[in-house]
Amino acid sequence: MSKNLQEKISIIIKKFETRKFQDVINDSLVILKKNDNDFLWNLTGLSFQNIHQIEKSINCFENALGLNPKNFSASNNLGLSYKKLRNYSKAEEYLQISIELNPKYVNALVNLGNLKNETYFFDNAISFYNKALILNKNLPLIHLNISSVYQSLNKINEAKEHLNKAILIDETFTIADQKLTTLEKYDEKNPHTKMMVYKLEKLKLNENQKVYLHFGLYKAYKDLKEYKKSFHHLKSGNQLQRKLLKYDIDQHKSLSKKIKSIFSQINLREIQQSNGGENNIFILGMPRSGTTLVEKIISSHSNVSTISESNFIPEKVNKYLNKDSEGLKNFLKSNFEDKYNAFIKSFNIKDKIIIDKTLTNFWHIGFIKIFFPNAKVIHVSRNPKDNCLSIFENLFDYPEGWNSDQKELAEYYLIYKDLMDFWNKLFENSILNIKYEDIILDTETKIKEIIKFCNLEWESACLEFHNNNNPIKTVSFNQANKPIYKTSVNKYELYENKLKILFSKLT
């Protein structure tokens, strides 16, 4: 490699380190036209990954491996790209190759652990994480990931143990602090509250790290019934998070308008698949509306398993919503059900009837009705004020922006409600609409209604859903693992004066 080329690559590396990904792509592709280089192809692929152009990243990583089949980093990154496309078999193939090429490559071990965690092979996930820990015991992220597995399995003590280990390794790894608060009930004797205050006031933290502490302190002070302090941190955490996120509510308004326009013009009888979906149950709605509770109830049945929030349908459908009418028409005629079923087979589940609790499927009920005409669609709703309060007070793993601002949260909720009204009118009585409060007030009647709608034979285990050991991967795990309780109904009344902007738009 010439000195001139080395200098150019060094400049590109610096641009990558400062997250100037489009510049990296532009500069690299100029060089690669004349000088094939596996390192540069790999770096370009990583840049495409970071700007969410996954198919292009795959081409780059394949080029890198074509030049150097022993490039374990490129193989690992190729596996990650396939994982992002929900092609889990290909993802595992290349992650395994990366480990074979370099058995001490921690990144590949962690990524393979993440894949196994995502597909419910929890023992395998912990095994890969532990192998990574042997090689590097000072990575707090590994402990965080192990904790998430134990949390899914409702092994709370083990989950807390690994979060505490992460905190000890790196006091600035504040996501572990926030996750720990979701597992603890705080009193005056718990030193963690003061520790979080110290970190927030004394440590040099970036804004993202501060968000975690604000949400953590909100939970701790709420447990301590110091509501003024609690709300201060809730407000501060949401304001800071909103600042960090790019979001425009008009995009969702436009999406709703486009979807309603498409399905107002479609002749469903002409394009609806003649069969399929008889083994599928889709539970959808807003976050924190009671969907996890309904999932827990149905998955307590001996013939039912869940893949929880797979996001497969939204990720695939959204690509076609931006295509021209001909491209969309071809998509509607495709064998989408086969692709979906192939995706499900990647999971460690055995039962024939599968729950998909991807909340944002409420956007795509029309597509579900086309591709899975015999599927059961269950929409769960909740008092809008309680629902939006619960969204506002929780820190989600993948926030979008609308959930951190009172005005945008209310507007998003109204978009969702309008779209659900549209679907219910379009599909008449084929969607089961369940209110969270009705389950609380008349539990047995509503649970029997849900089970009957799913064409399942009655099993008393569905009433004892809190004894169900099926994993839960959402922020609602604490609530869903308990018997029915009423304390979350009309909870918004405690915050009536503090969330006026939000609540005024919901009335």
Please tell me about this protein's structure.
It is a single chain. This protein is mainly α and 507 residues long. The chain has a domain at 276-506: Rossmann fold, CATH 3.40.50. The protein has 27 helices and five strands. The chain has helices spanning 3-17, 21-32, 38-50, 54-67, 72-84, 88-101, 106-118, 122-135, 140-152, 156-169, 174-181, 192-202, 207-223, 227-244, 249-265, 268-271, 291-299, 312-321, 325-332, 336-344, 365-371, 384-392, 406-426, 436-441, 443-453, 477-480, 500-506; strands at residues 280-285, 304-306, 353-356, 376-381, 431-435.
Could you write a compact summary of the structure shown?
The protein has helices at residues 3-17, 21-32, 38-50, 54-67, 72-84, 88-101, 106-118, 122-135, 140-152, 156-169, 174-181, 192-202, 207-223, 227-244, 249-265, 268-271, 291-299, 312-321, 325-332, 336-344, 365-371, 384-392, 406-426, 436-441, 443-453, 477-480, 500-506, and strands spanning 280-285, 304-306, 353-356, 376-381, 431-435.
Tell me the major beta sheet.
5 strands, parallel
What is the CA-based Rg, rounded? Answer: 24 Å
Give the spatial strand order of the biggest sheet: 2-3-1-4-5
Percent of sequence in beta strands: under 5%
Mean pLDDT: 92
Q: What's the CATH H-level homologous superfamily of one domain?
A: P-loop containing nucleotide triphosphate hydrolases
CATH topology name of one domain, in short, is: Rossmann fold
Could you give the distance between the termini?
A: 67 Å
* Low-confidence segments: none
User: How many strand elements?
Assistant: 5
The CATH C-level class name of one domain: Alpha Beta
